[in-house]
Amino acid sequence: MARRNPFRSEAEAFHLLLLTIVAFAAVALASLLGGWQVGLPVWIVVTAAAIWWYLRPLPEATVKQAPHHVGGPDERRILVVANETLSDPELLQAVSRAATGYRAQVLVVAPALNSKVRHWASDDDNARADAQRRLDDSLGRLTGLGLEVRGEVGDSDPVQAIEDALRTFGADEIILSTHPEGRSNWLERGEVEKAEQRFDVPITHVVVDLGG
Description:
Elements (H helix, E strand, L loop, with lengths): L1 E2 L6 H25 L1 H20 L1 E2 L16 E7 L7 H11 L3 E9 L4 H5 L4 H20 L3 E7 L3 H9 L6 E6 L6 H4 L2 H8 L4 E5 L5
Parallel strand pairs: 3-4, 3-6, 4-5, 6-7
Antiparallel strand pairs: 1-2
Helix pairs in contact: 1-2
């Protein structure tokens, strides 16, 4: 189940703004009519309702998204999603194997990892800069393997980053790289399973142990 992000779209942001205005209006009216003895309970109820609205789970899409293959039968488009494991030889070898025998195009997406506090404060600059540095290093290594490759920094949510990329890149395969179980936030949140449920594209999960 997904969580609602009020800033994922303009519509969600508008709904949050509207809810905030209504909440302040309700509290102000209650305080005006009955003083703080009435205003405080109303504020508690409205705040609880707002928290419930934000945290309530959203149903996953029931229809898998299947991008169309672009190009001839000898062409292959590979979408790689990773961040801290981007330049690891094990991941690079997995991409090279997937491209073997094809005229392959590779799109590497590095989600901009950020803390929740910085994300809600719209302070994503450092996270995007770190992701860009790792991305540049990975692109250089993949280009050295003779692959046609380009990259971009994506959404901090890897599933959303995949969805964004598939809008313009008709991938034939998705390679999703994570740390091992116990050290991977993506695995703890079930991001690999979410991607498999949402996208009708073969997904190869590459586990990279940077501490090994």
